[in-house]
Every structure is written in C-alpha cells, then in structure tokens.
Amino acid sequence: MKYGFITVASAVPAVRVADTDYNVAEIERMIRLADQQNVEIICFPELCITGYTCQDLFREQLLLEKAEEGLMQLLSNTRQLDIISVVGMPVQAGGLLLNVAVVMQKGAILGLVPKTYLPNYNEFYEKRWFASAQDLQPTEIYLAGSPIELSAVPKLFQTASGVKFGVEICEDVWAPIPPSNNLALAGAEVVLNLSASDELIGKHAYLRSLLAQQSARTISGYVYSSSGFGESTQDVVYGGNAMVFENGIVLAEGERFSFEPQMQVAQVDVERLRAERRSNTTFINAQRHARAQVVSCLHVTSTADQNFRLTRAVDPHPFIPNDEDMQGTCEEILNIQVAGLAKRLVHTNSKRVIIGISGGLDSTLALLVCVRTFDKLGYDRKGIVGVTMPGFGTSDRTHENAVSLMQSLGITSMEISIAKAVMQHFEDIGQDPNVHDVTYENAQARERTQLLMDLSNKMGGLVIGTGDLSELALGWATYNGDHMSMYGVNASVPKTLIQYLVLYIANNHVDAVSRATLLDIVDTPISPELTPADAEGNIQQKTEDLVGPYELHDFFLYYFLRFGFRPSKIFMLAKAAFHTDAVSSYATQADALAAGCYDAATIKKWLTTFCRRFFSQQFKRSCLPDGPKVGSVSLSPRGDWRMPSDAASTAWLQECEEL
Questions:
Q1: Beta bridge mates, 193
Q2: What pTM did the predictor assign?
Q3: Rounded to 5 degrees, what angle do the CA atoms 413, 418, 422 make?
Q4: DSSP state of 244
Q5: Can you name the residues that pair with 463 across neighbouring β-strands?
Q6: Closest listed residue to residue 44, CA positions, set 70, 80, 64, 79
Q7: Contact 158/295 with Cβ under 8 angstroms?
Q8: Beta-carbon count within 10 A of 520 CB
Q9: What residues in the chain have per-residue pLDDT under 50?
Q10: How far, in Å, CA of 440 to CA of 309, rounded?
Q11: Shortest CA distance to 11 belongs to which of 347, 320, 306, 258?
Q12: At what angle do helices 20-36 and 61-77 cross, to 10 degrees?
C-alpha cells in the first residue's frame, strides 16, 4: 500500500461447467496478469473452480475431489506470488457441503469463509446442495493437504500493510443484515463479494444501487465479482458483473454480457476511508459490539510500493458538481444560502440588508442570494441596500458592473467614496499614501466595513458578508475589515464554485441586462482592488498572482480538510489531477495553464503557500460571523474546524520542502 491506496481487482474468468482443469488454468492466468499490474487482492466469482451451475453434480464425489485438486494446483503454481487471491469452491465438512470462499497467498490457505444466506427463490435452489454457515459447528478439516479451521466465526484478513478485508458471498449482501455490516464495524476496510447473480430485467440497476449503498453505509471499499459467459444458460443467464466501489462511488465497472474474460482493477483509498470513519461518530458508536477473528496475511517482498503509479482519475475541481447534476446542485446550494439568510431576517424582524458591492464574484453571489431571499419572503427588493465604495484601486470595469447590476436587479443603490476618509486616516496615523504596504490596503478594507456597519445602525438592517471559503482558508481577508459582517452567506462556498453559481443564475434566472453584467463579472480578474490600476485603468493587483491559483488552493483545501491528507499525498494527487506529466507537451507555460496543467514545481510552491497561510491565518477564522454550511467542507469555528491560532505548521512545511 502506497499513499494509503490498495490495488484490488474483480475478475470474471472464462468458465466451463464442471471442467475444473480448464477453470483453474483460467483463474491462474488472471492471477498472474493481476500480479503483473501490482494488484494486491483479487476476487473471483462464487464457485468459480467448478462453475456455479453444476446443480446435482455437486453431489458427485469426483467433482468435489477435482475441485480440491484444482485448488492444490492453484496453490502450487502461485506460491511465488505476493498477491492475495480469493476463489470460490465447494468444500466438504463432515456431513455438510459448503459454498466457500478460499483466501490464499503464496501457496498457503489463509482462511475459509462459508456462505451464510442461501437463495431458494429462483431457478437455482442452493439449499438443495449446500448448507449455511449457520449450520456449521467449528471444526478442523483437511483441504489441499493442510489442516484448516472451518467455522461460522466472522473473519477479518489483515494484509502486511495493515489493511483489513472481509468476505461475503452473493446472497449475503441481499440479506436484511448482511455479514459485511459486522465485518466493516469490526474493522474491514474492504469487502469482497464472490457472486453468481443471474440477469433479469431491472435487476442490474437494483444490484448496482444496493452495492453502492452498502459501500456507503459501511464506509468501505466493495469489490464485487459475479459469474459470466460460460455458465449454463439452461434457465437463466449470467452477465458477468465486475464492479469496485469506494464509499458509494463506483471506481471501476466491467462490461456486462461480455463473451471474453475481464478484470477490473481499481485503487481503493483506504486512508480516505479511515478518515471518514474517524469523523463519523455514528459509525464509531455502532462498532461497540462488532467482533471478528483477525487472520494475518503473509509478509510480502513485492516492489509494488516502489513502482506505485496512480491509475484512478482525480477530479481537479472537487467542489464543482459534474454536468449531470450541475443544475440540481446549484439550486440546492442557493436554497441553503437563502434559507439561512431568510431565517436570520425573520428572527431579527428585519426587512433590510446592507451589502458592499464591488463588481467582483463574491459580492455578486451574495447580492443574488439576497435578491432570491427577499423574493421568496415577499419583501421589497428596495430593502436591499447595495453600496459601492470606490477607492484608490477601483477600476472602471468593476465599478460600472456594480452599478449596472444594482440597477437591473432593482435594489437600492448608494455610492460612497472612501478616498477622503482614508486619506484623513492616513494623516491621523502618519501613513505615507505613496507607500502601498499592508497598512495602505487594510485601511481601505476597514473603512468600507465601518461604513457598512454604521449604515446598518442608521437604516436598521443586517450587514451581509461576502467573503468565501477559499479566502477564509488562506486568510485573504482584512481582520475586522471584509472579514467581519452580521451574516456571511458565502462562508462555506469555495471560489471555484462561486463562478459556477453566478453562471448558473446568469443563464437561468435573470433578465438579459443582468445576464450580460454577470457574464462580464465572471470574466473579470479576481482582485481586492486596493492598489491603483495601471495607466490604462486596468486591474493591476491580481489575487492569483499573489497567493496562487484558486483552483489549486481549493484542491489542497478539499483534501486537507475533508480527509486530513498529508502534503505528500495531496502533492501526488494534484500532479495527477492537473496532468503534470503533460506540461512538457505544450509550447508555452501559458498554453499548459490554459489546458489546466501545472508542473510539479508550481504545485509544490503553492502547496507550501497554502500550508503556511492556513496555519498562520487561523486567528481570523476563530471569530467568524455566522453563515450557512452548504457542503462537506466548512471552516466555521463553532462546529466544523477547531484549531488553536498558535498551532505550529513546522511538520507540514518540512514535508512540503521535501517534495
């Protein structure tokens, strides 16, 4: 296991019913193929050594002995391989015949897992041939020449790298209380299911949903392998399902009804699953009475860790919904923001809000949320007081967009220049206005906040905060300046998502004039506009030139906060997400950036900046105003992120330096 990933495979081999020699040869071939791909655990279908559809042939001693011989051949021929293989076969235990999963590695049987729930409702009546694990008394049997303990006691298998996995068989997962429930609660991070599920109209969609839900409910990786082409089609057909899930998300899925053998390989992020479990108190509480016997797998000498290469896709924009659910997600986010603000207005009996409008993305989204809220409450939009406060760095473009948007949305607009007040302040504190330092910038931000607060007192309204999640993570806000408000509607919305929300509203919910303004705001460079524009009046102070690209910072923030990943893992994921290997294929760096590619040095630079700023700016987050949580990541000090303001960043920065 490297970076917390374990590589697993779901295999559907070619099969001939009752031809164990052929089946074993196919299983061995796929085990070797998987081992070449650094797979650590491979799962095969139920009863794959004999074939699932042998029916009354399972009563034939010859078939049972041929199955055992086949297992012996598999053990012998794979004893030099580190890979853990899980195969299905019939096993005799005194007067019982059991449908069993055999877990084996390096020529040794690590354990046997008998099937618990046997179907008796379709064309294949397993109870005709097999007994349930519930009928089994603990016993020792000889299998493949070795004494093996066989019992119904739940078993967990622990790999040399510490990953725990459990096994259930087909019908088990359809039960009201699947064995995987207890296995996961007892510590299994990956569950393997050896299956032979026949195909019926609508069954696959239900099965896929069932497996996704089970993976999500148990916060586990779930590897499912089901019989395919080659099984008997006397009465039913087997489609050959090969699927891998991680916490409800499908990582790999094979082609149903394929006439060829197939193997789906995926990397399950066990570290991510562990982080999810640690933060889920419901899961922790449910673990109290879960028990299982732990079986240690064998030590491996594989170089898989040294040869590790991430094969799963990594979304470079984890906060942004995909195209399939973009509209629904945008509506849900906006509804959460609106509901939060509406409750605050109703509670304070206020029908007026004060909001600073800069012509930038953040204040634009906050204004649009205010408009939606007032419309939903039946309030007059004139109760929304938008204030544009031009200063030393305000550009014509942003000022005109701010004024135009307020007019087209029909709110009350005010304009108050802060230049005179700030110059007076500079004189009072002895600040040279020609020195464009942090005092020069922050004095403007605080003057704007003072104006808004005083207007709220005068007019009887709430000051609406506009700052977003990304700015809070980086501390890109002036303490007691734009950092402060009476309700921050954007507090848990990251910068990369704000653009999509504004675009969504522009394209679906406003008039043509407002749409044109919103589209131009989206295209405007992100800037605090606290230093003068250039000679042509263009924005000179661009935020992303100073603190780095927000798409990188939002990526870092997601994995740092959501899963607690260390810098080395975030760095590895970022290189994959932003196609570091492809940078050299572009003629210029600008072309690479336009294609969403960043080289390793750039990622390292801004990851170091993120870690440094995230720690040093915690004091601003410790006293944030209220605001609604809209996603799984938030920095509210009241529930989502509690961190001392004087925590040391030494370990994180040191690891960044070593990247």
A1: 168, 224
A2: 0.90
A3: 165
A4: E
A5: 354
A6: 70
A7: yes
A8: 17
A9: none
A10: 48
A11: 258
A12: 20
The amino acid at residue 141 is I
Neighbours of 614 (CB within 10 A): 24
**What are the distances in angstroms from CA 104 to CA 77, 83, 148, 210, 469?**
12, 9, 12, 28, 48
CA distance 243 to 223: 6
Query: Rounded distance, CA 3 to CA 304, Å?
Result: 12
Whats the size of the chain, residue-wise? Answer: 659
DSSP 483-495: T--SEETTTT--H
Q: Is 46 a catalytic residue?
A: yes
The catalytically annotated residue of 2, 66, 106, 115 is 115
Sheet holding 384-388, edge to edge: 412-415, 384-388, 353-356, 462-465, 487-488
Give me the pLDDT at residue 528, please. 61
Separation of alpha carbons 174 and 151, rounded Å: 22
Which amino acid is it at 467? Answer: G
Amino acid identity at 223:
V
3-class SS of residue 547: helix
Residues 6+ apart with CB under 8 A from 619: 479, 645
> Going by DSSP bridges, is the β-strand pair 249-253/108-114 parallel, antiparallel, or unpaired?
unpaired
- Give the residues across from 97 on adjacent strands: 92
Q: Are 603 and 551 in contact (CB under 8 A)?
A: no
What single-letter amino acid sits at 139?
Answer: T
Radius of gyration of the chain (CA): 31
Classify residue 531 by its DSSP letter: S
Residue 201 half-sphere exposure toward CB, CA atoms < 13 A: 0
- In which residue are the tokens 């295209």 written? 523
Matching residue, tokens 């590895």:
572
Q: How many helices (H) and strands (E) does the chain have?
A: 21, 20
- Which of 250, 240, 185, 239 has the alpha carbon at shortest distance from 213? 250
Q: What is the dihedral of CA 516, 521, 522, 528, to 10 degrees?
A: 180
- Kindly give the pairing relationship between strand 139-143 and strand 146-150: antiparallel
Q: Cα(498)–Cα(368) distance, rounded to whole angstroms?
A: 11
- Cβ-Cβ contacts under 8 Å for 239 (sequence gap 6 or more): 197, 199, 204, 226, 228, 256, 257
Mean pLDDT estimate for the chain: 93
Euclidean distance between CA atoms 293 and 479, whole angstroms: 55
Shortest CA distance to 24 belongs to which of 129, 115, 114, 104?
104
The catalytically annotated residue of 26, 46, 68, 231 is 46
Residue type, position 556, single letter: F
How far is residue 343 from each of residues 339, 347, 463, 486, measured CA to CA in Å? Answer: 6, 6, 15, 13
Token couple for 237:
């057909």
Residue 511 token pair: 């008039």
CA dist 469 and 556 (Å) reads 13
The pLDDT value given to residue 323: 72
- The pair of structure tokens assigned to 186 is 């007892």
Residue 115 annotated to the active site: yes
Integer Cα distance of 118 and 132 in angstroms:
7
Tokens standing for residue 482: 């734009």
DSSP state letter for 108: E
> Nearest 5°: phi and psi at 112?
-120, 140
Tokens of 291: 């028990």
Let me know: does 338 contact 627? Beta carbons within 8 Å: no
Whole-number Cα distances in Å, 393 to 320, 436, 610: 31, 11, 26
Instruction: Say which of 170, 330, 370, 611 is annotated catalytic.
Output: 170
Positive/negative CA dihedral, 488, 494, 498, 500: negative
Cα–Cα–Cα angle for 514, 518, 524, rounded to 5 degrees: 145
3-state SS, residue 624: coil
